[in-house]
Amino acid sequence: MACELFAAQHRTFAGTLIEPFWPLAMCALVLLAYLIQNWVNLQLTISLLGLLTVPLYWYVLYVLEYNFAFGKTISLLCHLRKRQKSQ
């Protein structure tokens, strides 16, 4: 799914960079399951680790607000238009 964010000519390169993280995550999950053998505690651990990504939502909003506040809207719009044309 992450490769769909890129234009067709860049999807091979993007897939090469993005897709190896899935098997690495599965290996990390196997290691976690070996270390935490109670499935309730394993599920709790995975959920708590996933909650660490929630602050990224506010970070992304902050970056957008910062760019708009300091007059970088033109560069943002140019970047969005370029991305739109490439797809």
Overall description:
This protein has five helices and no strands. By secondary structure, the protein is mostly helical. It folds into two domains: 1-52, no CATH class; 54-87, no CATH class. The two termini are 15 Å apart.
Strand and helix map with partners:
Blueprint: H1 11-18, H2 21-35, H3 39-51, H4 55-69, H5 73-86
Mean pLDDT, all residues = 80
Low-confidence stretches: none
Q: What is the H-and-E element order?
A: HHHHH
Rg calculated over all Cα atoms: 19 Å
Structural class: mainly alpha
Tally of individual domains: 2
Which of globular, elongated, flat, extended, rod-shaped describes the shape?
flat
Number of helices: 5
The proportion of strand residues reads under 5%
Quantity of strands, as a count: 0
Binned, the helix content reads over 70%
Q: What is the terminal separation in angstroms?
A: 15 Å
Which labels suit this protein?
mainly alpha; 2 domains; 5 helices; flat
Summarize the structure.
The chain is an all-alpha fold.
